[in-house]
Amino acid sequence: MTPPRSRFRIVLVLGLLSALGPLTIDMYLPSLPAITDDLTTTAAAVQLTLTGTLFGLAFGQLLIGPLSDAFGRRRPLLAGTAVHVISSALCVVAPGVVSLGILRVLQGLGAAAASVVAMAMVRDLFSDRDAARIFSRLMLVIGVAPVLAPTIGGLVLNWTSWRGVFVVLALAGVAIMAVSAWVLPETLPIAKRRNEGLIGTARDYGRLLTDRVYVGLILVAGLAMAALFAYVSGSSYVFQDGYDLSEQQFALIFAGGAIGLIGATQFNVRLLLRWTPQQIMSVALLAGVGSGAVLVLTAVTGFGGLAGILVPLGLVLAMVGLAMPNAPALALSRHGEAAGTAAALLGAVQFGVGALAAPLVGLLGVGAVAMAVVVAGGMVAATAVFFLVVRPHRLPAVDPEPVVALVH
Fold first, then answer.
1. Alpha-carbon gap, residue 100 to 166, rounded angstroms
2. 397 phi, psi to nearest 5 deg
3. pLDDT tens digit string along 232-250?
């Protein structure tokens, strides 16, 4: 069994790994208007650099997940984080929006290694309800990234340009890679590694895609992520351009939304003492649909001004916070024999669907109404998939299993 102190350190580092992707996405959000002006381009083009990051995160997980099943967790993790560091450094000298977009894809690819390996390690070490609790605890650490990242980005903009944000991201990648190399052991024994090449990888993905419940759960996770990233991609324009807030004021509002999401993930741990993950998700998704409908109404009518947007938006984010830990836990519990590949497909769908949400907000007008429609649409679609495809009332109850020992 894992000593409590070692378990705490490992969970903390896994949270830092999972935070690398959100940190990469969120830290430059206050810079979007400045990048638009400095590179003499359009808001939609700059938002595509965000889409590029999400695409890199999605594709990178499909690539790295099977590699982590074949070669263990540590080597793909450290190699991918190194790619993130190098691409972050190159973003500092990007001459235009096209080169910045390409480098952001590479950043996403590097961050994908951290994300998918963290999820796979949770599945290596924990099961069922215990995994849901760990995912909730990881969300506490992950949540620090959205809270701090825009604030750090705003502070960096006080003394340098948007390029300085990428210097900070490169240094953060170096620090996370060093801590991971020092703390994290290998959690996948050689005997359990899957060295079956491309044919074996294709067979694993094929088996996953024929599991209706698993596919439904990862779609729910992806559509909930789409609602979140519609807010992420549109919020800086809505609050800074639409409501004339400063970069620092926007960072505070963004932090408030992140705190609500974090609080919901931690409340989920207490809820799991009485209810199953599927029961919690059922209520959260329905409440998210109702809050999303109110958000669209206030965005269209202007009722309540800034508060009319912030209150229902905060409720939607809280409901996403309840759904996000439970969907992965239920999905990964079905395929422990190929945890890396299952986590990769889950992450790819999450970030891939999120990548579609970002430009959709831009195409609809980069305003409060556009953001609200995509946020609410993501919640409606997630709820429909959950009840029509996953069919939560037919899922078996999950029981906690003992935590396995670490592989040294």
1. 11
2. -70, 145
3. 778 888 898 888 888 778 8
**Distance of CA 390 to CAs 212, 214, 338, Å?**
7, 8, 21
272-276: long-range pairs with CB below 8 Å, 24+? 272/129, 272/132, 272/133, 272/136, 276/395, 276/397, 276/398
Tell me the C-alpha distance between 361 and 71, whole Å.
Answer: 39
Condensed to tens digits (0 to 9), the pLDDT of residues 81-92 reads 999 999 999 999
> Residue 116 is which amino acid?
V
Question: Collapsing DSSP states into helix, strand and coil, what is residue 162?
Answer: coil
Amino acid 76 reads P
Cα(168)–Cα(153) distance, rounded to whole angstroms? 9
* pTM of the predicted structure, to 2 decimals: 0.71
Token pair 């240094």: residue: 171
CA distance 112 to 102: 15
Of 253, 218, 236, which Cα lies nearest the Cα of 366?
A: 236
Residues 6+ apart with CB under 8 A from 120: 65, 68, 69, 73, 187, 188, 339, 340, 343
Question: Closest by alpha carbon to 162, among 79, 72, 100?
Answer: 100
- Amino acid identity, position 15: G
Task: Say how many CA atoms lie within 13 Å of 258 toward its Cβ.
Answer: 26
